[in-house]
User: Fold this.
Amino acid sequence: MNLDSRTELLNEFVETCRQAELSITPQRLAVYKALLRSDNHPSPDMIYKSVLPEFPTISFATVYKILETFDQNGIISKVTALHNKLRYDPIKEHHHHIICVKCKKIIDIKSDDLDKLPIPSEVKEDNELIDFTVHFNVICSECRKKD
Ligand SMILES: [Zn+2]
Ligand SMILES: [Zn+2]
Assistant:
């Protein structure tokens, strides 16, 4: 994520909070900034550790609750992956994921071709499709080197 899009997302965050009537507390701001600082779809634990230096007294439960609030208000989204670890994504633009099954690294990709993927009829039949994300499970180059 480059700096421009970070600033843009931060502005958007402030705006979304205003619309949702969520007050922007110092803790909430710190959690959101921690999300933006991380380039790798952080887990609640990673975010907690990243906020600690600034807020030594904040609890994991508080951080977790803030993330849930963000998710409920569409500020961030959960990445559903094969491994049972919750990971958050601050990028709102439609994108897909390359996931390393070994080191759990998640890389964002944008692809017009994937966005145009034919949707199977089972999906569309009785349902209203909201969104979809393609996950490519890989063993990344770094992990391949280690083997
Ligand atoms: Zn890897
Ligand atoms: Zn992503």
Observations:
- Residues 100, 102-103, 105, 140, 142-143 surround zinc ion (ligand 1) (CB under 6 Å).
